[in-house]
Amino acid sequence: MNARIEDYAVIGDEQTAALIGKDGSIDWLCLPRFDSGACFARLLGDEDHGHWRIAPAGADTCTRRAYRSDTLVLDTEWETADGAVRVTDLMPQRDRAPDVVRIVEGVSGRVTVRSTLRLRFDYGSITPWMRRSDGHRVAVGGPDSVWLRTEPAVRTWGEDFGTHSEFTLAEGERVAFVLTWHPSHERRPPLVDPYEALESSVTDWRRWARRCRYDGPYRDAVVRSLITLKALTYAPTGGIVAAATTSLPEQPGGVRNWDYRYCWLRDSTLTLGALLAAGYQEEAEAWRNWLLRAVAGDPADLQIMYGVAGERRLPETELPWLPGFVASSPVRIGNGAVDQLQLDVYGEVMDSLSLARASGLPTKPHMWAIQRSLMDFLAAEWRQPDEGLWEVRGGRRHFVHSKVMVWVAADRAVRTLETHRELRGDLAGWRRLREEVHREVCEKGFDRERNTFTQYYGSRELDAALLLIPRVGFLPPDDPRVVGTVDAIRDDLGHGGFLRRYDTDDSLVDGLPGGEGAFLACSFWLADALHLTGRTKEARELFERLVGLCNDVGLLAEEYDPAKGCQLGNFPQAFSHIGLVNTALTLFGEDRAG
Hints:
Blueprint: E1 9-12, E2 17-20, E3 25-30, E4 38-40, E5 51-56, E6 64-67, E7 74-80, E8 83-90, E9 99-118, H1 121-124, E10 129-133, E11 136-141, E12 144-151, E13 156-159, E14 162-170, E15 174-183, H2 194-209, H3 219-231, E16 233-234, E17 239-240, E18 263-264, H4 268-278, H5 281-295, E19 305-306, E20 317-318, E21 332-333, H6 344-358, H7 367-381, H8 400-419, H9 427-444, E22 446-447, E23 452-453, H10 469-472, H11 480-493, E24 494-495, E25 498-499, H12 507-510, E26 518-519, H13 520-532, H14 536-547, E27 559-561, E28 566-568, H15 574-588
Helix pairs in contact: 3-15, 4-5, 4-6, 4-15, 5-6, 6-7, 6-8, 7-8, 8-9, 13-14, 13-15, 14-15
């Protein structure tokens, strides 16, 4: 198994994604959707849990790899004693069915290449029945069917519950493998031409990347982050998953292993802002529309996350047959935090819809009615404690960030009515709510002795989410309380030059054993806060260090361990890449983004 999270690259078709290691093995792929069962789960187990490796015979890790510029097409090269070969991996935009295309090309000399395919449906628990049909290898197991073919044909054979191929390529010779999934009760879908798929994928991705309006420093990293966000988008609905994986650990060997293949409302405003500022209005509108569909209904039932199509039931279960990445267990699917109360999401939704309206996205007839309904709920329920932004499992508290986001909801409602006189709402009541929340947060959530806001009312703990206070407009950046909070968070939560979310040693709040690494999104927020408080040089230095944490193909996980120098958590992580884009725009984009 590839022993480090950063050893992986990602390919995808905007409905699911595959992770490919430096050894040429696809170790994670869920079909047909991001949240479907994995047919390759070696990432969380071993080879018998499913993988597909193509590499020179006897080779270990590749010599080099890179995405073709401004695309999600991955080239992996090996140099051997006999010559060199290149494997090009992609998932073309699907028509009916998902395809994985792997094109092997001789670069020099004559190299013998081996392909080993072990399909294991349902997260490695089902070994399918394999047969031949019309020159294809066909795997069937319950509802899943996968077809494998090569162009030109090469000999394949079955051994050790796997499908094997071996062939020799000279310079310029190519063999393409195509793996296609479809429901086992349906007929095989039309065949995709692998070479046409490669050409069209490169063209389509580069056309999309050219729409990026940012042309400042670190543009390559910004574009790579935007491509990653596009890859994490479920195209049929516009929803964006937090990551392509489940249960990659926040602490190796620990229990902080969660399923991130869902869409979080927490990310909504920052995602929308990044897409709009970078020039991707269509994607921003699709995300806004997903948001409206997901939150429709009784505001008391608003969830912190939803499935890619807006599904509400995401029951959390464990998969005991998978030992986990570097023995980090349990492996979980579903996410029990879906049932938590997080008042901050009401602020996120109100802020997102306010931003969408202000940015000129076409409005929807029911949008304001939904917003009014959300405000009616908040006006009655905002005094409740909640589980907070970070989904703690140690009980509800009056988290300061949650109350700040209640203020944001009221503020955006007031501003919308003040700007759009044709709309109706409780302007006076929402103004009173805004004032009351602001006053209470400043009284109960601020430690005057240390000149800092705190994690929750009456506590001494800190929370990196408080760095968002100036960004959302709760207080101006030059307010001494903001400056004091930024300094206190940097001092108390600093971790190897980056930032933790909060102090995990306080198990009463966190409710979980063990710790975690530096949280990358929070570290980007620190750079933003330093810039807003007049310390732009420090902010840019921190941003440069954060960009330097990207792996060799420009991807970031959720967290980073400064002591061991490795990435942690699910991968690639939308929240981290959103942070990179927004911070680049904050630091360098004033004159260079449209």
